[in-house]
Amino acid sequence: MDNAGNCNTTAVCLPKYIPTFRGILARGRCFTHIIQLVAKVCFDLLRLRMVS
Fold first, then answer.
1. pLDDT tens, 20-30?
2. pTM over 0.85
3. In angstroms, what is the C-alpha Rg of the chain?
4. Would you state the pLDDT for residue 29?
5. What is the sign of the dihedral through the CA atoms of 29, 32, 36 and 39?
6. DSSP readout, the chain?
7. Given Cys at both, which of 8, 16, 22, 52 links 26, Cβ 3.0 to 4.6 Å?
């Protein structure tokens, strides 16, 4: 799950349909967004190295 605001609702409602889902405990608020940003920078750096 990403850091979108409606994920709060998803995290609360999803355990009703998937009992093994841990709800709010499984919510990775900013962590996944930070990982995405780091990956984007790494790919951009690799792309720059390939061009030059």
1. 988 877 776 66
2. no
3. 16
4. 64
5. positive
6. --S-TTHHHHHHHHHHH-TT--GGGG--TTHHHHHHHHHHHHHHHHHHHHH-
7. 22
**Cα–Cα dist 51/26, whole Å:** 40
Are 15 and 21 contacting, i.e. CB atoms less than 8 angstroms apart? yes
Q: Could you give the C-alpha distances from 26 to 8, 11, 37, in angstroms and in order? A: 11, 8, 20
| Contact criterion met (CB below 8 Å) for 24 and 13 | no
Tokens describing residue 48: 């720059």
**pLDDT tens by residue, 1-52:** 445 567 778 788 888 998 898 887 777 666 777 788 899 999 999 998 888 7
